[in-house]
Write a structure and sequence with these properties.
- The complex is a heterodimer of chains A (126) and B (364).
- In chain A, helix 2 runs parallel beside helix 3.
- Chain A has a five-stranded parallel β-sheet, sandwiched between helices.
- Chain A has 126 residues and is α/β, with parallel strands linked by helices.
- The longest helix of chain A is centred in the N-terminal third of the chain and has 14 residues.
- The radius of gyration of chain A is 13 Å and the shape is globular.
- Chain A is built from six helices and five strands, in the order E-H-E-H-E-H-H-E-H-E-H.
- Helices cover 43% and strands 17% of the residues of chain A.
- With 364 residues, chain B is an alpha/beta fold.
- In chain B, the strands form three sheets. In chain B, strands 2-1-3-4-5 form a five-stranded parallel β-sheet, sandwiched between helices.
- In chain B, helix 8 packs antiparallel against helix 10.
- The two termini of chain B are 52 Å apart.
- The chains are: A alpha/beta (126), B alpha/beta (364).
Chain lengths: 126, 364
C-alpha cells in the first residue's frame, strides 16, 4: 500500500516496487484518509503486508495517519509493516518517526531500491 | 501606548509627604500613593505599576524589606529607596535585597528627585522596549523556523521526484540510450539539492544550541568519506588517528566541518596530478583534537586566502567547479561555535592544508 499526496511520487514508488518484484499487488492512495477507510473495514484480505507512507501530506499527515492506525486491531496490525518516506531532512520528523514502535524505518526520497531491499531482507519480509 | 502616562507608586507612612509628592508629579505621571506597605502591595496587585518609590523608615516593615518583596513578586519593576540616614548597611541591603536602582536623600531636593525618577522611567522604558523587541525577535525566529521547515520540504520534494524518475530510467533497458542525458540532469539536480541542503544547514548552524556528546572521529570521517568518495574515484585517501578517536563535542557541527572540508578537497583536485591525495592526520588528547587536513589540489592564491571563510565568496579559478560559496563559511561558523580554531595555508597548484583545533569537552 502506497500513500502519498504526490501522484508522481506514487507512480515512481509503484515502479520501484514493481521492478523489485516483491509485491503481488500494489495499491495507491493519494489521500491518507481513503487508505485508512479501507484498513478500518477490518477485513484481513484487504490489508497489505507493507505500507509506504509519506509524512508531509495535506489534510491527514503521515503522523496523523499513524495515530489513527494505532487504534486498529492488533491482530491485523501485527502482520503489516510501515515504512515512512519523506523528502524533508528535518531532524524532528526523523526522531518522531523512528520513536514510533510501529514504524519499521524512515526512508528519504527518492527511495533507494537497494536500501529498501536490504531493509526488507533484514526484517525477513522478502 | 507611548503617550500613556507612566505609573508611579510612592509608599511613605507620612501623609504629608504623600500629598506633596502627588501634587508635584501628578501632571507628568499617573501617581499612586500608599500609607503602608500592605496598601502598596494591594495597589500593585490590581494595577500594573512599574516604578516604585519607598521610604525606608516605616512601622511594621522597612523600605528595604518591602522592596525586597516587590522585587520577588514583580521583578520587572524599577525601585527607588528614600532614606534619611546614610547608613552604609541600609545601602548595601537595599542593593542586595531590594535591588534598587536609585537612592534619594530625605528631606529631598525636588529637582534631584525629578531627575532620579526620570532616570528610572528611562530604565523602565528601555526595559519594556527590550522586552518587546525580544518578543518580536522570538516571533521572527519562530516564523523563520517554520519557513525553513517548509522550504526544506517544498523545494526538495520536486527534486526528489525528479531524482526518483531518473533512477527509474536506469532500471528500464529501453531508456538506456538516453543515459548520458539523464546523468547530466541528475548531476544538475544533485547540485541544486546540495545547495538547498547547505542553506538548511546554514540556518540550523546559526540557530541551534550545541549539544556535547561522545563523537567517534574515526567513524564520522569514514562515513563522510564513504559518502563522498564516488565523486572522484582516483583519489588516494590517507587517514590516521593517534590517540582515542572518541572525543566530546557537537556531532552536528563536526559533520558540517568535515563534510565541507573533505568535499572541497575532492572537488578542487588538480586534474593533471598523477597521485591525487587527501591526507587527514588527527592527534587526540584529553584537551583537544588537532586535525591536519591536506590535499595536493589546485590550491588557493594568497590574495584570496584571507577571504575564503566569507559568505558567498568564490575564487576566480573555481568558477568552473560547482559551489555555492557557503561551505567554508559554514565551517568557520561551526568551528567558532564549538570553540575551536581553524587555520589555512595553501599554494597554487601544490595544495591546501587546514589546521584545526577542536576542543575535547570531557566532563568529569
Amino acid at each position: 500500500m502506497l500513500i502519498d499526496d504526490n501522484k508522481i511520487d506514487l507512480f515512481i514508488n509503484n515502479q520501484f516496487i514493481t521492478q523489485m518484484n516483491i509485491a503481488d499487488a500494489i495499491i495507491e492512495y493519494p489521500v491518507a484518509v481513503e487508505a485508512l477507510n479501507i484498513l478500518q473495514e477490518n477485513d484481513a484480505s484487504k490489508w497489505p503486508d507493507l505500507i509506504l507512507c509519506d509524512i508531509h501530506m495535506p489534510v491527514m499527515s503521515g503522523f496523523k495517519f499513524l495515530e489513527e492506525y494505532a487504534l486498529l486491531p492488533e491482530s491485523l496490525r501485527k502482520n503489516c509493516n510501515i515504512i515512512m518516506i519523506s523528502s524533508s531532512l528535518d531532524e524532528r520528523d526523523r526522531v518522531k518517526a523512528l520513536e514510533n514502535p510501529m514504524v519499521l524505518a524512515l526512508l528519504e526520497k527518492p527511495i533507494n531500491v537497494a536500501e529498501l531491499k536490504r531493509l526488507l531482507e533484514k526484517e525477513n519480509l522478502i | 501606548m507611548v503617550s500613556e502616562k507612566v505609573k508611579i507608586l510612592y509608599v511613605d507612612d507620612e501623609e504629608n509627604n504623600l500629598i506633596a509628592f502627588r501634587a508635584n508629579f501628578k501632571r507628568e505621571y499617573e501617581v499612586y500613593t500608599a500609607i503602608s506597605a500592605e496598601i502598596a502591595l494591594s495597589l500593585l496587585e490590581s494595577n500594573s505599576i512599574y516604578i516604585i518609590i519607598s521610604d525606608e523608615r516605616m512601622p511594621h516593615i522597612t523600605g528595604v524589606e518591602f522592596l525586597e518583596k516587590v522585587a520577588k513578586l514583580y521583578p520587572d519593576t524599577v525601585r527607588l529607596l528614600i532614606t534619611g540616614h546614610s547608613d552604609i548597611d541600609i545601602v548595601i541591603q537595599a542593593i542586595n535585597r531590594g535591588q534598587v536602582s536609585k537612592f534619594i536623600h530625605k528631606p529631598w531636593d525636588w529637582e534631584k528627585l525629578e531627575i532620579s525618577i526620570d532616570h528610572c522611567v528611562t530604565i523602565y522604558k528601555s526595559r519594556t522596549e527590550l522586552k518587546l523587541k525580544n518578543e518580536e525577535l522570538q516571533k521572527t525566529n519562530d516564523e523563520l523556523n517554520k519557513f525553513v521547515y517548509s522550504v526544506s520540504h517544498d523545494l526538495r520534494s520536486p527534486l526528489t521526484s525528479i531524482l526518483g524518475l531518473i533512477n527509474l530510467t536506469k532500471l528500464k533497458p529501453e531508456l538506456r540510450v538516453a543515459d548520458t542525458y539523464f546523468d547530466m540532469i541528475e548531476n544538475r539536480v544533485m547540485t541544486l539539492d546540495n545547495s538547498v541542503k547547505k542553506i538548511i544547514d546554514y540556518y540550523k548552524n546559526a540557530r541551534s544550541e550545541g549539544r556535547i556528546e561522545e563523537v567517534n572521529l574515526n567513524s564520522i570521517i569514514t562515513e563522510i568519506w564513504n559518502n563522498l568518495k564516488n565523486e572522484n574515484k582516483t583519489i588516494n585517501f590517507e587517514f590516521v588517528i593517534n590517540g582515542n578517536p572518541v572525543i566530546f563535542s557537537d556531532i552536528f557541527r563536526l559533520q558540517i566541518i568535515f563534510e565541507n572540508l573533505i568535499s572541497n578537497a575532492i572537488k578542487y583536485q588538480n586534474p593533471s596530478e598523477k597521485k591525487q591525495t587527501i591526507k587527514i592526520n588527527i592527534d587526540v588528547t584529553d584537551k583537544n583534537a588537532r586535525v591536519l587536513l591536506s590535499d595536493n589540489g589546485i590550491g588557493i592564491s594568497d590574495e584570496y586566502l584571507k577571504s575564503i571563510f566569507n559568505l558567498f565568496f568564490r575564487t576566480n579559478n573555481s568558477s568552473d567547479i560547482e559551489g555555492s560559496g557557503i561551505g567554508l563559511y559554514l565551517v568557520k561558523d561551526a568551528i567558532d561555535k564549538i570553540g575551536g580554531k581553524i587555520e589555512v595555508s595553501s599554494k597554487v597548484m601544490v595544495g591546501t592544508s587546514f589546521d584545526l583545533t577542536i576542543p575535547n569537552r570531557i566532563t568529569l
